[in-house]
Specification:
This protein is mainly α. Strands 1-2-3 form a 3-stranded antiparallel sheet. Helix 9 crosses helix 10. The longest helix is centred in the middle third of the chain and has 22 residues. It is globular, with a radius of gyration of 18 Å.
Length: 229
């Protein structure tokens, strides 16, 4: 399923959402510029779960080298499809969450969701030495918040029907519910495997991000009454 837009207009200009998109695209162009040095950069700036459990991998890094990648990894992507897919989801769903939280709290919320997503991936993958990168964990947190705030919003979605793409309008709770169940079932299927990042997708980062989004939304949203959609 590919979301194209939702039916709730932004009340304020989503400046933080836009800046996050610009930051991700800018970092991606920096990755491209690295050429043959890119794999080493990804290994340094990506989340490598084994670094948190194997002292042989972390002895020369120090605390900064171990924990800083939890945040730098949120701005790295493995290709154009990875980048554009993440930015599409961020653009469709983040503006309304930013409306609800306000600009500064939304930025804090986004980073906290990325942190929660990385922790879930690390503990689901304790022996993996494969770097995990991408904004999808933090964006999953945005989806979790949207699920709580705007369950009755409509999401205009491209859905494959046989060999064709059909445009339909789905309630947000159905679209996001299906999305979360897909992540959960795929995540469960990877348990016990050598890595829970099967097929290059960190399923448990998505699950952890979504749950973190609900938790941090309840923590940060305050008592302001919200409109129901």
């Amino acid at each position: 399923m590919i979301p194209l837009k939702d039916t709730i207009p932004s009340e304020k200009y989503p400046i933080v959402t836009l800046l996050l998109i610009v930051a991700n695209i800018s970092v991606f162009f920096y990755e491209i510029s690295l050429g043959r040095y890119l794999p080493e950069f990804v290994k340094f700036a990506g989340v490598v779960p084994a670094r948190f459990f194997d002292p042989r991998l972390s002895v020369h890094q120090g605390p900064l080298g171990r924990y800083f990648p939890i945040f730098t990894s949120l701005f790295l992507h493995g290709g154009w499809v990875h980048l554009l897919g993440n930015m599409l989801y961020l653009w469709v769903f983040a503006d309304n969450v930013e409306d609800r939280l306000g600009h500064f709290r939304f930025l804090i919320f986004y980073l906290l969701c990325g942190f929660g997503a990385s922790l879930a991936h690390i503990f689901a993958n304790p022996t993996s030495s494969v770097p995990s990168i991408g904004a999808s964990g933090a964006i999953a947190g945005v989806l979790g918040a949207y699920f709580v705030l705007y369950p009755n919003s409509r999401v205009i979605t491209l859905v494959p029907v046989f060999f064709f793409l059909q445009m339909i309008e789905l309630p947000a709770f159905i679209f996001l519910g299906i999305w979360f169940l897909m992540q959960f079932f795929n995540g469960v299927l990877t348990l016990g495997l050598a890595t829970a990042q099967a097929g290059g997708i960190a399923w448990w980062a998505h699950i952890g991000g979504f749950v973190s989004g609900i938790f941090f939304l309840l923590l940060l949203k305050g008592k302001k009454r919200r409109k129901r959609y």
